[in-house]
Amino acid sequence: MEWSDLTDGAKAVLEQTRNIKNDKIQIVEFEVGFKQEVEDSDEEPISIQEEDYQSLKRFTQENEYGDKYHMARNKNIVKIILLEKGKIPDNLSEIPIFREYKNQN
Hints:
With 105 residues, this protein is α+β, with helices and mostly antiparallel strands. Helices cover 19% and strands 30% of the residues. The protein is globular.
């Protein structure tokens, strides 16, 4: 699966899995059903729906770029991390959540 096949919500999540500035691996947590409130009408809101989750799931299994991801879903909350060297880190709980796309309750 190629980048161009991803839904917009899936792209928004994947773009956040690596902090470009210092090249650190980051966890991104999102809620299926999230819709961003946008104050600036020029800005495109981020929406992550079930089809975005399915797109992410397929991409992480079939991507053609060689990157390996770990995704875990508990009800509607999903965490995704880009793996270094294809292995889940021993200290996964110590890796910060870099970005959250979650509805405020």
